[in-house]
Amino acid sequence: NLMAAEKARDISAFDKCSDYALKGISMLPSDKWESHPDLAVKLYSLAAETEGFLGRHSQMEIYCREVLAQKSISTLQKKDVYLAKLDRMANAALRYDDACRLCLTVLKELGCGFPRGGVMGLMKAVVSVHMTVKMVKQTPTEVLDSLPVVTDPSKLAIMTLLSRLGDWSYLAGEKFAYLAVLAVTNMVQKTLSNGLFDWSAKSLAALGYLSLVAFSDIDTAHYFGERALQMQERCGSEVGKARMLNSLYVFVFHHLKPLQNFSKPLVESHHIGMRNGDKASAMWSVCNTTILLYIIGKPLKVIEEQCKLSVSQMDELNEEEQASCLRMYWQLCFNLMGLSTNTVEFSGEAMNENKVFSTLVSRNMLVGVKMIASSLFGRYEMGAHLAIAKETQKYLKITGGDNSRAMFWFHGSLCLYAMARTNKT
User: Fewest CB within a 10 Å sphere: which of 49, 293, 375, 417?
Assistant: First the structure.
């Protein structure tokens, strides 16, 4: 049953995987944690992982509690159960702060500690970016091309957790920004020191984005991005590829490459994420692909229909933040097509702006689409107030930024220009 469950998971047959894992668990003896600990932890971990993917979180928690309560099982053996619990905490419940704290605790138990926040954390993050960018640029191409593939279970576990920590600390906002930076630089340094991990290419792509934010260095960001693509091919694993493609085509490549060429890699990212059980990345890929349709000027009806299909899939998989962000573009389409009684208010068939999930990403997205609506409907005063708000300025003034940032800047600037002309006369 364990072998059958693993094969089912590998081909993304998660319902079958759950069935086989549950059957295997039912066949374990009552003293399973003493007589068959390795078999028991593998079956329970598979069950927790698949129940989480299928959105059956109450059952997933039962499996997690069972494993985590076993003091005779090491933290390394509990890694997959921790990941299932962490994924649910962050991606389903949107408790990014709590997910970061638990992730730090598990990493510490595995021997990978991080500094506390505050000034010291920020200083270490700044120094680490400078040092890591320099390390990569000074590493000969032939060395990067000949890195061995890492197989040590402990190092692999740490790298997987670091990848999650980098994503969630970024989504958690300013308070955890230093952790996002340190997680990325730590991953790149471990790659240079030890060899290729599943998440190495993704970390190098993220370092490219950091080089944009820290140094406004487009050439270095592009170089790191191209190296990340080559590194991913050498790795031979798809595990981190979905997140890597998202990072590159949303945060890095749009500065030098035409946006019209981005749909194919983002669609590929969606398929890869679904094949590997990374539904969070898969749904961000769907979200980014659909938003791209608006940015490059596809017909509103096409975008509206794609939003409807995509949000339905996100709701089914319990990926609520991606659905929340995409609902904003869906409602924008309704407003612009005259299918809503509202213009700059985002309440209607697709969403209610007063019930949006209050996360950093969703708040910034809502401000951005409202600036678009304010500009297009001539509500310049409202758009101008949104554009000069303190939190909006923090978001818009980050050097580099995602591929929708320039669009938000454009519409916000139009509103500010219109108000300046009005006040002048």
Answer: 417
**Regions of the chain short of the pLDDT cut 50:** none
Q: What is the pLDDT of residue 161?
A: 96
Residues 6+ apart with CB under 8 A from 130: 214
- Residue 224 CB burial class (10 angstroms; 0-12, 13-18, ≥19): buried
3-state SS of 81-149 is HHHHHHHHHHHHCCCHHHHHHHHHHHHHHCCCCCCCCHHHHHHHHHHHHHHHHHHHHHCCHHHHHCCCE
61-76 tens-digit pLDDT: 999 999 999 999 999 9
Q: What is the pLDDT of residue 399?
A: 67
C-alpha 261: how far from its chain's center?
21
1 alpha carbon, distance to own chain's centre = 32
Burial of 124 (0-12, 13-18, 19+ CB in 10 A): middle
Tokens for 29, please give them: 């003896």
**Alpha-carbon span 148 to 210, nearest angstrom:** 25
d(CA 289, CA 254): 13
Is the distance from CB of 106 to CB of 189 less than 8 angstroms? no
Give residue 425's pLDDT.
Answer: 52
> How many whole angstroms separate alpha carbon 79 and alpha carbon 83?
6
Q: Which residue has the tokens 């970016």?
A: 129
Instruction: Give the closest residue to 114 by CA, choosing from 194, 174, 176.
Output: 176
Residue 424 has a pLDDT of 64
Length of the chain: 425
